[in-house]
Amino acid sequence: MERFQKEKYIAQLSIDCVIFGYKNKELKVLISKLSYGEGLWSLPGGYILKTESIDEAASRILKERTGLNNIYLEQFRAFGGKDRIIGSEYREMVRSGLKSFDPDRFDDEAIDWVTDRFVCLGYYALVDLNKVNPKMGEFEEFLKWEGVEELPHMTHDHNSIVAAAHKALRQNLDEQLIGFNLLPETFTMKEVKELYEAVYDKEFPMNNFQKKILGLQVLERLGKKYTGAQNRAPYLYRFKK
Amino acid sequence: MERFQKEKYIAQLSIDCVIFGYKNKELKVLISKLSYGEGLWSLPGGYILKTESIDEAASRILKERTGLNNIYLEQFRAFGGKDRIIGSEYREMVRSGLKSFDPDRFDDEAIDWVTDRFVCLGYYALVDLNKVNPKMGEFEEFLKWEGVEELPHMTHDHNSIVAAAHKALRQNLDEQLIGFNLLPETFTMKEVKELYEAVYDKEFPMNNFQKKILGLQVLERLGKKYTGAQNRAPYLYRFKK
């Protein structure tokens, strides 16, 4: 296997991605099960090439992991505790995992590089979960979507990173109308309301909510959605591009 | 002079500080005149020791530059354009400046390190300008407070960093009641209003403003401020700790 080319990347600086999706009235995050040991979960992430900007790196990593271009993506903060990795049990697990992996790919110097202290730049992404085709990273067994309130304990400070991303998402949802990135192309007003309720974890009365959202004048009303059910068919909407 | 010990620091990662102060009804930023050449201005900044967290590094740098402990400090975003320094005229100016500086302090390897591409973590700080005793960095001629709207062209993307910090300050001023960090220990309501007007660059009618600020219940009213002038003496306030 090809040697890991650490010299191509900026050392001690990584990107971790909180990829938000929305399904079954729940805000979800894409997390990966690491192959180093039992119960090791982590956020998808990667390194920054010396020849790309940090935003380009984040877009590239997200494309590699989701197959999607033009994802809505926002850098929200850097995480730089001095104890990130250094000295932790996890570090030894990674070191022995890498040693047993493939000596042609990871020599001792590369292992030192990968297990050094890293400052992480946190990005969150909003995706239409139905369009994503999650792809595993090198040391991952599988990926899965998990409810933001039901995440397992993750390595490093990844649970704190998700909490900070969720906070940033709440602050930006209203202001920047980014929530529609989580929905399919067309949706009913009830679906928008349920999305907001999932993100903010509180209920919004339908009348006020619909008035507020329509007042923003960013939605285009399409035909009615006939489901064959007895109740009144709701209108479908689409976000004006 | 002592050799610059680059091995103590994380490479390619720096901290730049937007230090906000407030004087003469104007929001000001502390900027430094660099000694490398004519008209070179920059934000105060520094590197991150491998043994300290990024927040500790920012606090240390701010203490070194202002003499103050316990400054209000907020990380607001990372700046990582691929063209930060690399290939710019400025880089050559810095290289030749460092070469002529002191070969015992900066050898060729150290000069390469300092002039490599850096990703910068932006922090903004709010200080009582009267308490600050600005201290020059190694390659600075002098520091000065300049109005946020009257800044000279600065090196790299430092003008954009200030603009982003100003935006973050506006977003946080109300929510987190951080504005009082810019004022002296005691102040009149008029002074608070003028501060808000300077930060948001718009006027607030006094009656509504006073009602809103007092409604937050974070201020303690002290005695009246007698100035000897003919007009009514205003109350002095203090932020409840």
UniProtKB/TrEMBL annotation, chains A, B:
Domain Nudix hydrolase: 10-168
Pfam families: NUDIX, WHD_NrtR
Superkingdom of source: Bacteria
The protein, known as: NUDIX domain-containing protein
Organism, as annotated: Flagellimonas okinawensis
